[in-house]
C-alpha cells in the first residue's frame, strides 16, 4: 500500500498535522506566531549545512531550528521589542540560508521544494521520520500538558506552584524545532508557520476547553492536509500552498459562522 505515492503523501500530511496540532495551540495562546516563523526560516540554513557536510537533512534542520529558537530566547529582553527581534532574526535566517544554498557549487538543490514543500516526493524513510517526530512532539506535549497549560494561561499560579516558566518555554522550543524538521518536507520552510497557526485558529471559536481545542486542531489539520492533497491532485496546483489554502478557507468559514455553531 505504501508504494502508492498519494497514500504516502496523505500519511505524511496527517503525521505533520498531528505534530503541529498541540504545539500550534500553545503558539496561538502564547502569541508566538512570529517565533514559529523565525524558527521555520532557519530550517533552510539547516538544509544548506546538511548538504555541505553530507549529513541527513532532518538532523541539520532540527539542529538549525533548535539553535535559532534558543538564540531568540537568549536575546529577548535586551532592549529590543520582541516582535522587532523576531522580525530581524526570521528574515536574516531566511536570507542567510538562501545565500548559503546559492554558494554551494556542485550540489543540486531543489530550492522550491524546501521553501514550499514537496509532499508528493515523500519516501517510506521520510514517512517513518515524520511519524517518529510526530510521536516525540505529541508525547512531549502530553507529558508536560498541565504544566504548560498553567504556565501559559495563569503565570502567577504557575510561579506560586513552583512551575518554571523557562523550563516550559524550553519544552515548547524543542517541540517546535522537531515540528519544523518534520514539516519541511510537507509544506516547506515558508509555510510551516501557517500550519502551526491556522488550524488552531480555526478550532478556537468551536472549542470549549483547551483539550477539545487541541483535538479539534488535530482533526482540522489532518482534514486540511488530505483535502489540500486531493485538491492539488485534481487541479494540478502546488500541494503545500494548496494545503494552506484549504486551512485558510476553513478559517474563513469558522470566523463567519463559528459563533452561530457554538450557540
Features:
single chain; 263 residues; mainly alpha; ABC transporter involved in vitamin B12 uptake, BtuC; 13 helices
Q: In terms of structural class, how would the helical and strand content be classed?
A: mainly alpha
How many distinct folded domains?
Answer: 1
CATH superfamily label = ABC transporter involved in vitamin B12 uptake, BtuC
Count of helical stretches = 13
**CATH fold label:** ABC transporter involved in vitamin B12 uptake, BtuC
CATH class: Mainly Alpha
Which range best describes the helical content: under 10%, 10-25%, 25-40%, 40-55%, 55-70% or over 70%?
over 70%
What does this protein structure show overall?
The chain has 263 residues and is an all-alpha fold. It has a single domain (5-190), classed as ABC transporter involved in vitamin B12 uptake, BtuC, CATH 1.10.3470.10. It has helices at residues 5-29, 33-41, 43-52, 57-75, 82-102, 111-116, 124-143, 145-153, 155-160, 165-183, 192-203, 210-235, 239-262. The longest helix has 26 residues, at 210-235. The protein is globular, with a radius of gyration of 18 Å. The mean pLDDT is 85.
Amino acid at each position: 500500500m505504501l508504494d502508492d505515492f498519494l497514500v504516502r503523501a496523505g500519511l505524511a500530511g496527517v503525521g505533520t498535522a498531528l505534530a503541529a496540532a498541540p504545539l500550534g495551540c500553545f503558539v496561538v495562546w502564547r502569541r508566538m506566531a512570529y517565533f514559529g516563523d523565525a524558527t521555520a526560516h532557519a530550517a533552510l540554513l539547516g538544509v544548506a549545512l546538511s548538504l555541505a557536510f553530507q549529513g541527513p537533512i532532518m538532523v541539520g534542520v532540527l539542529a538549525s531550528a533548535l539553535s535559532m529558537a534558543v538564540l531568540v530566547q537568549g536575546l529577548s529582553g535586551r532592549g529590543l521589542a520582541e516582535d522587532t527581534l523576531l522580525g530581524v532574526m526570521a528574515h536574516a535566517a531566511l536570507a542567510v540560508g538562501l545565500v548559503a544554498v546559492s554558494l554551494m557549487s556542485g550540489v543540486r538543490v531543489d530550492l522550491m521544494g524546501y521553501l514550499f514543500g514537496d509532499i508528493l516526493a515523500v519516501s517510506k524513510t521520510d514517512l517513518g521520520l515524520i511519524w517518529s517526530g510526530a510521536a516525540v512532539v505529541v508525547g512531549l506535549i502530553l507529558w508536560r500538558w498541565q504544566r504548560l497549560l498553567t504556565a501559559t494561561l495563569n503565570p502567577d499560579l504557575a510561579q506560586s506552584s513552583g512551575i518554571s516558566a523557562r523550563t516550559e518555554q524550553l519544552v515548547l522550543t524543542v517541540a517546535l524545532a522537531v515540528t519544523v524538521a518534520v514539516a519541511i518536507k510537507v509544506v516547506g520552510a515558508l509555510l510551516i508557520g501557517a500550519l502551526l497557526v491556522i488550524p488552531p485558529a480555526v478550532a478556537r471559536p468551536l472549542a470549549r476547553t483547551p483539550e477539545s481545542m487541541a483535538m479539534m486542531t488535530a482533526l482540522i489539520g489532518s482534514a486540511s492536509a488530505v483535502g489540500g492533497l486531493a485538491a492539488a491532485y485534481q487541479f494540478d496546483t502546488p500541494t503545500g500552498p494548496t494545503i494552506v489554502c484549504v486551512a485558510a478557507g476553513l478559517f474563513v468559514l469558522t470566523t463567519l459562522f463559528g459563533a452561530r455553531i457554538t450557540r
